[in-house]
Specification:
By secondary structure, this protein is an all-alpha fold. Helix content is about 50%, strand content about 0%. It has helices at about 5-15, 35-50, 70, 75-85, 95-105, 110-115, 125-135, 145-155, 165-175, 185-195, 200-215. The chain is built from eleven helices and no strands. The structure holds iron/sulfur cluster.
Length: about 240
């Protein structure tokens, strides 16, 4: 894969899909940090969509879902009933319940160790929360690696790029990476793409999600796709199992 291909891809995607990352929870350099309610709402939206915020299902404002503490106090069955009432998928009740408890246990309360920057000085509260939240996220049952990275990127403002099925389809069909590549290779390639062209990682994630939902699904619709001019001679590479 050449970086020139990725530069060309970014140009085509910006041209066809635009550049709009929507409201961000990115507050590096801001000592007070974001409203915690809005960070939690972003987490809920990510669970409801399992994808970027560009195509989000909004959380109803009058729903208890926007209150992490209220969610954490409900059983999975009660949460499922709440989701059903809002016409949302009840299958998401279990991961949502687990994330609400994660939030209450790890984000609402700052561990004294995380409150310090290691040199004995207090960190800004948001930095301490972000560090503690990120470190503990991997232990939440029902949260996949991809969803965890979406939460880190969109809710916690960390510089990660989720490796989605859409990303894998696009990159493998163009021969830029193969499915056997290690997860770290995916991360470093996506990071190089972002860093080389000063692209917002949220933007890259949204572009890949949109490519996946509109053109690059299980059966690629290359003739209509913005990236068709970057296909290898002879067309897209076949993906095993598709
Ligand atoms: S649909 Fe075809 S042209 Fe578009 S990203 Fe997928 S493989 Fe590439």
């Amino acid at each position: 894969m050449s970086l020139a291909d990725l530069e060309h891809a970014a140009f085509l995607l910006r041209d066809h899909l635009g550049a709009d990352t929507g409201p961000a929870t990115d507050c590096r350099g801001d000592s007070t940090g974001p409203e915690m309610t809005s960070v939690w709402t972003t987490v809920v939206e990510l669970v409801l969509n399992r994808r970027s915020r560009s195509t989000q299902t909004s959380v109803p404002e009058d729903s208890a879902l926007i209150d992490a503490t209220a969610c954490a106090s409900l059983s999975t069955l009660e949460l499922a009933a709440l989701l059903e009432k809002s016409r949302l998928s009840t299958r998401l009740a279990a991961p949502l319940a687990a994330l609400a408890r994660w939030w209450v246990d790890n984000v609402s309360v700052i561990d004294p160790e995380d409150a310090s920057d290691g040199d004995g000085r207090d960190q800004p509260p948001w930095e301490a929360r972000r560090k503690q939240a990120s470190r503990s996220l991997d232990t939440v049952r029902g949260v996949s690696r991809e969803l965890g990275e979406r939460i880190r990127l969109f809710a916690l403002g960390e510089p990660v790029t989720p490796v989605s099925r859409a990303a894998q389809r696009v990159f493998c069909r163009h021969g830029w990476l193969d499915l056997q590549s290690e997860y770290d290779d995916w991360q470093s390639t996506l990071s190089r793409w972002a860093e080389s062209y000063s692209l917002d990682r949220r933007q890259i994630t949204q572009w890949l999600d949109e490519l996946g939902s509109r053109w690059c699904g299980p059966k690629p619709k290359c003739d209509e796709c913005p990236l068709k001019e970057l296909l290898p001679r002879g067309g897209p590479y076949e993906l095993d199992g598709e």
